[in-house]
Amino acid sequence: MRLVILGGGESGVGTAILGKKKGYDVFVSDFGKIKGNYKEILLINGIAWEEEKHTEELILNADLVMKSPGIPDKSPIVKKLLEKGIRVISEIEFAAPFTNATIIGITGSNGKTTTTMLTHHLLKSAGLNAGIGGNIGKSFAWQVADNKYDCYVLELSSFQLDGIKNFKPHIAIITNISPDHLDRYDYKYENYIDSKFRITMNQTEDDFLIYDADDEAMNEWFTKHKTNAKLIPFSLTKILEEGVFINNNKMDIKISQEEFTMDTEYIALEGKHNMKNAMAATSVAKLMQIRKATIRESLSNFQGVEHRLEKVLKIQNVQYINDSKATNVNATFYALDSMNTPTVWIVGGVDKGNDYNELMSLVREKVKAIICLGVDNKKIIDAFGNVVDMMIEVDNMEDAVKMAQRLTEKGDSVLLSPACASFDLFESYEDRGNQFKQAIKNL
Q1: Any idea where the Mur ligase central domain is (predicted)?
Q2: What is the four-CA torsion angle of 378, 382, 386, 387, rounded to 10 degrees?
Q3: Beta-bridge mates of residue 390
Q4: Which of 303, 304, 338, 301 is nearest to 319 (CA)?
């Protein structure tokens, strides 16, 4: 069996290692450059590879193709493979059949990294032998090749779910759905929503789907479709017969005929959206039969995720907050919603079809100045030019931070929450967040 892997990054190299171990004839092809450390691993394992090209005669003879999530279906080589009827799948689909571990799959437009890391923290604190992967950390396929975990907590992007046929998590979470990546879904929101719900398409009545009962897009989907999984909703606004909800500042957990409550003030993560992430993770912990005391303790000592509402430093009584991971409007909505002081907001980057209207009331209420950090800021200026007193354009992080410092007074906050992808000026959202943190230290 010839396995061709498109993309020589973390998921590609991990799949190559697992494929080789399982007896496939493996070839890795990357249209860009492959990083040195990955090349070394491929060479050590005797895996053939090419970079900066896709050689058709070495690819179109595949029995199976694993496509890295960053490569769109519209790319010429993928089109040719599909025309030839060659199966193109994601790393998750390829790796899952090779493990008997319990799989917890987490998707959503926002909150999935925090929920994934918090869920993993809960399971590890309870002494479970749990791995973490998917869209974060070490490749899932690579971990399956090493074969050392009893359960996996996987963060799954819509792109990874687009490449599944039979993959089925025992427990699935959809944190929320808001428009994102619409450029990959023909600018049709319903296509993106359907893509997220692929996480439950193979689930049976022995499996579970945990979801946000306050989310319009999800509730709408349930009116037209159904899943075989047992539904476990969570809500900030409704009292539920089964699921997790808030009642008088207490988190009420009613799952599998059991009930317990927890004071919300002991939850380390701040903000409404993080309360939802905590509810989703707690639901998993309960289904995995983790003790209440362990759940309480884990929720109170979890440290959060880098680049997600990360408090960097306080300088002259101004708090600097790094939310570089906010690459869409909905994530930035949560960030602005959690601000309690006058805010200088740094925003901008590569727009994925953003509609800034939903931020309007929060910007009016909380934002005193906007710093646009992008190559093309026209949409942001058109949206908020008449709403804030001060609007400034910059093209590098150092200027953005220096400008922010000039515009603040004691008691203000500076929030980097770009609502956009980072690729116009930075390598990644991590690079953007790290440059922000460095620029603050240089003040």
Answers
A1: 106-284
A2: -90
A3: 369
A4: 338
From residue 307, alpha-carbon distances to 114, 122, 418 in Å are 11, 21, 11
Cα(109)–Cα(87) distance, integer angstroms: 27
Domains of the chain, first to last: 2-89 (3.40.50.720), 93-301 (3.40.1190.10), 310-441 (3.90.190.20)
Which pTM does this prediction carry?
Answer: 0.80
Residue 99 counted as an annotated binding residue: no
Give residue 181's pLDDT band: very low, low, confident or very high (50, 70, 90): low
Annotated binding residue at 114? yes
Q: Which amino acid is at 92?
A: I
Gap between the Cα atoms of 32 and 206, Å rounded: 43
Say whether 119 counts as a known binding-site residue: no
Distance CA 97, CA 19 (A): 12
- Check the CA dihedral 196-197-203-209 and report its sign: positive
Query: What are the pLDDT digits (tens) for 210-244?
Result: 999 999 999 999 999 999 999 999 999 999 999 99
Q: How confident is the prediction for the chain on average, in pLDDT?
A: 93
Residue 429: both structure tokens together? 């959202």
Are 107 and 156 in contact by the 8 Å Cβ rule? The answer is yes
Listed residue (314, 368, 323) closest to 349, CA to CA: 323
Dihedral class, residue 419 (left if φ above 0, else alpha if ψ from -120 to 50, else beta): left
Please, are residues 338 and 366 in contact by the beta-carbon 8 Å criterion? no
| Secondary structure, 3-state, the chain | CEEEEECCCHHHHHHHHHHHHCCCEEEEEECCCCCHHHHHHHHHCCCEEEECCCCHHHHCCCCEEEECCCCCCCCHHHHHHHHCCCEEECHHHHHHHHCCCEEEEEECCCCHHHHHHHHHHHHHHCCCCEEEEECCCCCHHHHHHHCCCCEEEEECCHHHHHCCCCCCCCEEEECCCCCCCHHHCCCCHHHHHHHHHHHHCCCCCCCEEEEECCCHHHHHHHHHCCCCCEEEEEECCCCCCCEEEEECCEEEEEECCEEEEEEHHHCCCCCHHHHHHHHHHHHHHHHCCCCHHHHHHHHHHCCCCCCCCEEEEEECCEEEEECCCCCCHHHHHHHHHCCCCCEEEEECCECCCCCHHHHHHHHHHHEEEEEEECCCCHHHHHHHCCCCCEEEEECCHHHHHHHHHHHCCCCCEEEECCCCECCCCCCCHHHHHHHHHHHHHCC
pLDDT in tens, 320-371: 999 999 998 988 998 999 899 999 999 999 887 888 999 999 999 999 999 9
